[in-house]
Amino acid sequence: MRKSKDPNHLARERLAAALTELMSERDYASITITEITQRAGVSRMTYYRNYSSKEDILRKFMDDVGECIHAKIMEQGIHKDAYQYYYTLFETLGQYSSLASAAMEAGLGGLILDCVSHNMDRTYLSRVENTNVQKYLLHYHAGAFFHVFIEWIRGGMTESCEQMARLCADATSGKPDFPIFGE
């Protein structure tokens, strides 16, 4: 995820790691900027040069992760294959399960959902007729993925990325293993 042309990237990575560590230790609301910068080994000036709030740290970190996933999906043409698309999401986002758990516990799940929605929009809306119906469908899928992903994390990630990708791909294709409506 390194951006070699951005000199502040390492500082942002350290601040995000510090905040994530602190969030795993105690309540998000009680974490101070001073504690974050001390843990990260950077100055408060570095923090304020890059961020305006603790939430901003998480949002920008999630945006960077989303950007990397989007690039991988587009480079490999994965956006054309629902199974590969969802596999890539579970495999990559699963690496950040502790951050997702901490964000959810802090009541910041909306940041994750916003990132997922933004990246699904970016990946697909430019390739289809950009109508309200298409936007609603993408947000429907983003919300469904978000909730399945969070439940997978809460359940200890016992199912493989392959199993989760198959479940989502089947649901997306309208062929789930169990009927939700009807019969």
Structure description:
- Helix content is 69%, strand content 0%.
- It has 183 residues and is mainly alpha-helical.
- The protein has a domain at 54-172.
- Helix 4 runs parallel beside helix 7 (109-124), helix 5 crosses helix 9 and helix 7 crosses helix 8.
- The protein starts with 8 loop residues before the first helix and ends in an 11-residue tail after the last helix.
Indicate the percent of residues in helices. 55-70%
- Number of beta-strand segments: 0
Distance between the termini: 47 Å
Choose one word for the global shape: globular
Largest sheet: none
Q: Quaternary status of these chains?
A: single chain
Summing up helix and strand content along with how strands pair, one would put the structural category as: mainly alpha
Radius of gyration: 18 Å
SS strand fraction: under 5%
Count up the helices.
9
Order of helices and strands: HHHHHHHHH
- Mean of the pLDDT scores? 86
Low-confidence stretches: 178-183
